[in-house]
Amino acid sequence: xxxxxxxxxxxxxxxxxxxxxxxALSATHVSSEILPVAAIPxxxxxxxxxxxxxxxxxxxxxxxxxxxxxMANPESRERLVEFTRRRAR
Length: 89
Fold this sequence. Notes:
Blueprint: H1 15-24, H2 51-55, H3 62-65, H4 77-88
């Protein structure tokens, strides 16, 4: 899910999804961080690729996390790479 055109992400962006998750699920299933992205990484088959979102922020190298050749939208991983670099500073 991405922001609507003209809508800038802010601190309150993640509040609603997190509140809904906390109300409907146990604490184990509620994400500690919710980041706005332009596109969800997808495989050529159309399935969502979740590992980049989990492994990149933990410090694993991009080349080991996902093969660009199997992605339908390889540009979608750039936001995760950017976030990981900023967090490492």
